C-alpha cells in the first residue's frame, strides 16, 4: 500500500500498546465504521469536551489545541452556540424561501472580497464547494483541464478527488489533471515565483498538447498539504497570469487560508495581490457547524446560472448562515486577523531561535497562525526527515499538545492553532516543543 500524504501521523493497529478501554473503542469503531477511516497519533485521543483552545478527554485531562482550524474562534464558542440554538428553535429552512439572514451574511462576506467578486453561493463542505467551482469553471471555459500542486488536497467527491494528489497514489488522478511542484522557496530560493509560474504554463501547454482544453488552476492559499508555503507575498501573480494566458480560470481554495488564518487579511489570496475568478471556502466558516461556499465573479456564473439551477438542501440553510454570521462577528470584534498575525509571528520567531541549537529544524515558515516547521536530517542538503517529524508530533501529543504533519515527504510539522491563541498559549506550546526536542534530539 502506498502512503497517504495527508495522514502522516495515522494510528497503526498493533504498533502501540493501548489501554484496554481505548483498544476496545478502536475495535468497535473499525467494526462499525469500516476500513476507510483513520485516527491521529500513535496513541489515539478520545475527546469528550472542548472549550476555547482546550480539548478534554473522559478523565478531564486538558489538551492544548494547536491544530484544528475549523473551530478557529475557539471550541464551543458561546456566541455561535447561541446563534445556532436560537435559529434552530425559530426556523430551519432552505434557500428556496426568502430569508433575511442569508442576504445579510452574503452582503457582509462579499464586502470582505475584491469588488470584482459579486455573488455568493452556499454549500455544506469544502469538497462540495470545490466540486461546484469545477462545474462552473468547466462550463465557462468549455474545457476540462485542471492544474494543481503535487501534494494538493481539495476534497473527496469523485471529481475533486481526481485533483487531490495528497490522497496518495492509490487514488488516481484524472486524465485531465496535471500537477506542478509546490512553490517551495526553502529549496528553490529566489527563482521560485518564476519557476512556479513557468510550471503552471507548461502544465496547461501539456494539457492542450493532449487535446484537453484548460479550465482551471486551483490552489490552496497557504499550500497546507504541500508543506505550508507562504512564499514571498505576491509570488502567485505569475501562476495566475499563466492560468489566464492559457484561457483558464483561477480558483482560490480558501478552505485553509480563509477567515483571517494567514494574518494579513481575511483571505489568503489577498497576500498575493491577485483577484480570483472563484473563491471556495469552508471549515472555519461556521466554527464547527457545516457551512461552506463559493464566491464568484458575476460574468463567470452568468451562463451557468441561466442553464442550470442550483439548489443544495442544507447549503446556506437558516441555521448555517446564523452560525457563520456569529463567526464573522467574533473575528471582527476580537481583531482576530491581527491576533493571528501577531501571535503567529511571535511563535515563528521563537521557533527560529531554536534553529541554532537544533539544526534539524531546517525551516520555519507560514503566515499568521498557519505555521510549517520543516524537519531535516542534514540542514546543508535539506534531507527530509519524516521519522523525526512524526516523533515530534507524537511527542507533543504525549505532552497534551496537538499538532500534525504534512508535505510530500511527510516531514513538516503543521501547526494551526485557533485564531484566539494568546501569548500564554503560545508560550505553553513552545515550552512543550522544547521539551520534546530535547528528549528526541539530545
Ligand atoms: N480544500 C482544502 C484546502 C482542504 O484543506 C479541505 C479539507 N481538508 C477541503 C478543501 C475539503 O473540505 P471538506 O473536508 O469540508 O470537504
Automatic annotation (TrEMBL):
Cofactor(s) this protein requires: pyridoxal 5'-phosphate
Ranges annotated as spanning the membrane: none
CDD domains: OAT_like (cd00610)
Keywords recorded for this protein, A-Z: Aminotransferase, Pyridoxal phosphate, Transferase
Sample GO molecular function, one term: pyridoxal phosphate binding
Domain of life (superkingdom): Bacteria
Protein name per its UniProtKB record: Aspartate aminotransferase family protein
Organism name: Antarcticimicrobium luteum
Amino acid at each position: 500500500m502506498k502512503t497517504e500524504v495527508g495522514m502522516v501521523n495515522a494510528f497503526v493497529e498493533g504498533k502501540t500498546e493501548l489501554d484496554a478501554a481505548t483498544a476496545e473503542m478502536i475495535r468497535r469503531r473499525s467494526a462499525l465504521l469500516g476500513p476507510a477511516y483513520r485516527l491521529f497519533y500513535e496513541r489515539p485521543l478520545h475527546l469528550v469536551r472542548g472549550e476555547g483552545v482546550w480539548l478534554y478527554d473522559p478523565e478531564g485531562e486538558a489538551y492544548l489545541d494547536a491544530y484544528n482550524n475549523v473551530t478557529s474562534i475557539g471550541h464551543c464558542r458561546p456566541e455561535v452556540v447561541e446563534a445556532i440554538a436560537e435559529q434552530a428553535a425559530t426556523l430551519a429552512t432552505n434557500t428556496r424561501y426568502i430569508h433575511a439572514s442569508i442576504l445579510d451574511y452574503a452582503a457582509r462576506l462579499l464586502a470582505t472580497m475584491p469588488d470584482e467578486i459579486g455573488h455568493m453561493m452556499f454549500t455544506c463542505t469544502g469538497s462540495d464547494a470545490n466540486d461546484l467551482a469545477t462545474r462552473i469553471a468547466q462550463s465557462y471555459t468549455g474545457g476540462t483541464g485542471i492544474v494543481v500542486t503535487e501534494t494538493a488536497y481539495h476534497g473527496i467527491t469523485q471529481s475533486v478527488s481526481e485533483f487531490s494528489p495528497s490522497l496518495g497514489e492509490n487514488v488516481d488522478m484524472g486524465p485531465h489533471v496535471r500537477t506542478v511542484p509546490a512553490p517551495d522557496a526553502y529549496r528553490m530560493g529566489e527563482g521560485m515565483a518564476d519557476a512556479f509560474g513557468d510550471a503552471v504554463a507548461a502544465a496547461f501547454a501539456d494539457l492542450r498538447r493532449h487535446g484537453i482544453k484548460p479550465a482551471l488552476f486551483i490552489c490552496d492559499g497557504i499550500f497546507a498539504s504541500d508543506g505550508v508555503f507562504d512564499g514571498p507575498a505576491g509570488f502567485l501573480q505569475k501562476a495566475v497570469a499563466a492560468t489566464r494566458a492559457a484561457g483558464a480560470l483561477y480558483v482560490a481554495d480558501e478552505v485553509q487560508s480563509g477567515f483571517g488564518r494567514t494574518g494579513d487579511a481575511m483571505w489568503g489570496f489577498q497576500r498575493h495581490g491577485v483577484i480570483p475568478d472563484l473563491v471556495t471556502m469552508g471549515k472555519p466558516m461556521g466554527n464547527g457547524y457545516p457551512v461552506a461556499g463559493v464566491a464568484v465573479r458575476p460574468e463567470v456564473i452568468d451562463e451557468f446560472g441561466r442553464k442550470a439551477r442550483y439548489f443544495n438542501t442544507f447549503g446556506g440553510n437558516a441555521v448555517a448562515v446564523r452560525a457563520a454570521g456569529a463567526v464573522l462577528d467574533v473575528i471582527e470584534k476580537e481583531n482576530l486577523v491581527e491576533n493571528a498575525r501577531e501571535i503567529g509571528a511571535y511563535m515563528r520567531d521563537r521557533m527560529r531561535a531554536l534553529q541554532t541549537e537544533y539544526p534539524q529544524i531546517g525551516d520555519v515558515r507560514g503566515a499568521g497562525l498557519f505555521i510549517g516547521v520543516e524537519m531535516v536530517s542534514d540542514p546543508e542538503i535539506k534531507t527530509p526527515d519524516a521519522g523525526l517529524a512524526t516523533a515530534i508530533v507524537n511527542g507533543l501529543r504525549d505532552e497534551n499538545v496537538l499538532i500534525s504533519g504534512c508535505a510530500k515527504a511527510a516531514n513538516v510539522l503543521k501547526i494551526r492553532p485557533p485564531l484566539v491563541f494568546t501569548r500564554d498559549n503560545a508560550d505553553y506550546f513552545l515550552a512543550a516543543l522544547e521539551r520534546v526536542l530535547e528528549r528526541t534530539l539530545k
